[in-house]
Amino acid sequence: MTEIFIDDEFETQLKEAFSTSPLNSPLMLKGRTRELERAVFGLATAGKATFVVGDRGVGKTSLAHTCATILSNGERRTIFELSCEKSQELYRVVREMSRALVNYDPLANPAQTSFSINLGGIATYDRKGDGSGAVPLPESINGALQILTSALERWRAKSGFETPVVIVDEFDRLEKDKELFGDFIKQVGDRAIPIRLIFCGVARELSELLGSHPSAPRHITTVALDRLGWDARMQIVADAA
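Structure (tokenized):
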């Protein structure tokens, strides 16, 4: 039987050229310049939100991560990521978002301080907190805004940064509180709360994720992704080669 092996140098180059993880560099994100600009400009003012919508596998999460990297000037310690599960609701999302901010560790390795939270169970982080991050579950929109604002104040005091970017992925899996999320986003924008929110969800348009809230859209930029065109696909192959 013929022995099969991969040269170490080739394997290293292969990993540099292709990635199965979400991209976070504009140089790697081919064919999405217009959409990336729209996402970034939509979040130029803190308190705004961007929704990235499209079919599965079109690169929504990669666009979100790249947008977050640009907004944070490459400072990974200002980027937080949540991953949603079914049967969760607004107040649980806000609590986990606030918990991540409260548990921020300013001494952590910058490459390891992006938080990943599974809303279906216990919040997990790349670095464990010290147990001081007990955050109550809000019971109203005003309560949610107060808890988030307090968490942001504590995060800024510990980190020295001003405005975090929070990516909420798999938003389409949430089955509750669609219009309540609209109220929350509207209030975050109206009060200019210093946070940038990026939501990713499988949908054709914003109304499938948020319902028909009358005021929320003025605080939201929607970025719709189609399948990547052939020119961009060929550019990926050419650059890798």
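Helices lie at 8-17, 33-42, 60-71, 90-102, 141-159, 178-190, 207-210, 230-240. The beta strands are 49-54, 79-83, 115-118, 165-169, 196-202, 220-225.
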